[in-house]
Fold:
Amino acid sequence: MNIIKRLQGKFGKEILEVKEPVKGKIYLTIPKTAIVKFADYIFNELKGRFVISVGTDTRSISNDYTITYIFSLDREKTFVSLQAHVKNDDLTIDSITPIIPGANWAEREVYDMVGVYPKGHPDPRRLILADDWPDGVYPLRKDFPYDKKPESAPEMKVPLKKTSEKATVISFGPFFPVLEEPAHFKLFIEGEQVVGCDYRGSYNHRGIEKLGDSKLTYNQIPFIAERICGICGFVHSTCYCEAVEEAAEIEVPLRAKYIRTIMLELERLHSHPLWLGIAGHIIGFETVLMQTWRMREPIMWLCEAISGNRKTYGMNIVGGVRRDIPKDLHPKIMDVLNTLEKEWKTLLKAIQGDTTLMMRLKNVGRLSNEDARKICVTGPSARGSGVVIDSRFDHPYSAYAEIGFKEVVSYLEGDTLARTLVRLEETLISIDIVKRALQEMPEGPIIAEITEEIPPGKEAVRVVEAPRGEAIHYVMTGLDNRPFRWKVRAPTYANLQAVPVMIQGASLADVPITIGSIDPCFSCTERMIIVDKKTGKEKMLTQNELLEYSIKRKLK
Amino acid sequence: MNYAIGIGILNIGLALLLSPFLEGIIRKLRAFIHSRKGPPFRQPYYDLLKLLGKEDLEVSPNFLIRWAPVVCLATILTAGLLVPMGTIKPPLAAAGDVIVFIYFITLTAVVIMMSAAASESPYAQIGVSREMMMLLTVEPVIAIALITGAINAHSLRMSDIVLWYLAHGPTVSMVIAGVSIFLAIQAQLAKLPFDISEAEQEIMGGLFIEASGPKYALFKWGFLAKQVIFASLFCQVFIPWPTTFILWLDILINLVKVLIVVIFVCLIDVVNPRLRIDQAIRYFLVMVFVALMGLVFALVQA
Structure:
């Protein structure tokens, strides 16, 4: 209430409507001209953190487009959503990116998807849509069918920055040995030093949100939500289900909440060793890769024993979970966790004592506390830079409130080492959480019976702390047993925007590990290029030129 | 003369035919440390055969691309003939000494760099610049260590250094030279933490990014042979004991010593991440200084 009062005191009549359907979720309707003022106040005065903006085609409801800016006030355990309506005759809204750099991608995405242009945006290039996508076609508008394939634009638009005359370009991606997924970092380098970079992603955009609000039903979405990510899939399905449950006011049985918590932590327990292994691989330390992945394997087997699958458990459904964790599995889980805990402690000691490893991690890819806040990074990347946020503590979901999660690990250094240590220590805490949850888990049903139809027009914002940071799902309920709008923001979406800051001035050799240190997950997020400034040679070939070129070369 | 040819065949044989087997042992060892099973010992032979049997592609019509792998292997094998492998006198002793040996190993690196530069890949260019920096700091360490021996023995011949060392036993200068050459081997063989100019994860193989098929096989074979040659150089010149002067026994002893050295090199390789080029150069600049200390000791003793 305090926050609403402060906002009302500050802005008075400019707030058109206030809603607080659930404690800690505040929705303010504001005029679109006031967005910058509001964002500025919440970001700088209330110390709120920008999370995402959601563009919704609400022409069928209020004959306009609604842009929802979601902020998290972590200390107050509150989400504040600013909703501005944009009329059809002027599809623009003032950009908040000059105040909050972390809103950069979100605003570009809104333009790509629903066509509301961010006025005053410093870098309004295309972000999500393919290079040959025609102009003026916005896929998330309701009149755009989910299965429509628009004709290719006559000209390919490669939305990459012009490079300085002196830079050499080194491409890091779209396919690169240490990138597990396609992402294109274009690095501008002088000798070995990176002087700038550019990013192009979204090679894997699958239009999942579009499917969610036009084709699938409430209970089908958890299964596709789980397929958003190959590592933290359960995070997305849990986050989606809890958002729908919140919107529809469905009470989930406590046992189901505990089971979700256990599965979420098991996911962190296999994600962090996976990351550490890859980090080792990136700096050429294969022994770390092999050993951590060996330690990780029993966790995968455990997940298989519980759900039938190593990954993508298919357990979540709106109202609860579909599979119980039977009593006779408890000793086995405890056994695996105890072994992992012992091995992990040895590993932690070995890593901290390894001087060569320290040389490669310390002071590498520094992200200052100030930048971390501005770019609104999340998860271990934020906690490594002294931004103490962890949605398990700030916005408890599932059974974290019942378990009493308090152990937020954070470091001030902001370098790759800090991010590594955060993850290493978190793993031990996760082991502890699973153990506690297993002991405290109450008996009872695992799924709530839903008798009534989910009412339309309800909104909910939910967060789940994925191993890489917080995943946010925004759901607005609709008719026909499916959401009107379902928005997913994966943690890498926020963290990836910090990479240019982290690698500025770094040695080329440190770029892979720096990118690796945010634990990027591109399938979640949905490209970077390297350029040498001295020779000034940079040439982008068109697809046809490239084809001709390769044929010519082959004939020689 | 016949003796020299015989020993020459022995050296080349060891360097070419035995080296893949040695690599097989290393792979098994590495797999063991990784908690893996690892490929069979003969796998490196299969790898070479497979590469040799592949289509011979060229990224550019540049003659450097075509001939560099051949010249690279040839220079490595010639360097191999200048190193004793179980004998006191290297087979090509009549033709050259320590200086010629240093020439040939430098030539190998230069040839590889030229072919990489000719490939025009930006990753290869970075590989070349890194290799150049490494060469300029690692090569002096090897040169100073060998010259320390030469000053002690008052001769630039490899065999004279060995004989002097056998007669005088370990001295401070020779121990320092031995240690510094051992540490330089790691970089010469492009093993971690010094495989910086190849760095798969950073520049996708750097120097060798455009090498494939038979050409890559020759580069790879060259590097395998280099393992035997450098390990032999270290074992025979800087720890020449025990030398029995019975040919077959000395050859056997050398093999055992080479195996041990290569295992050490492998162990360092598995327990280290890759250093950054500036860190590696700082490390080797210290090594140059250490090697120079050895040289000063040799001068004072002499």
Observations:
- Residues 2-301 of chain B form one domain.
- The mean pLDDT of chain B is 87.
- Chain B is about 75% helix and 0% strand.
- Chain B touches chain A through 32 residues (CB under 8 Å).
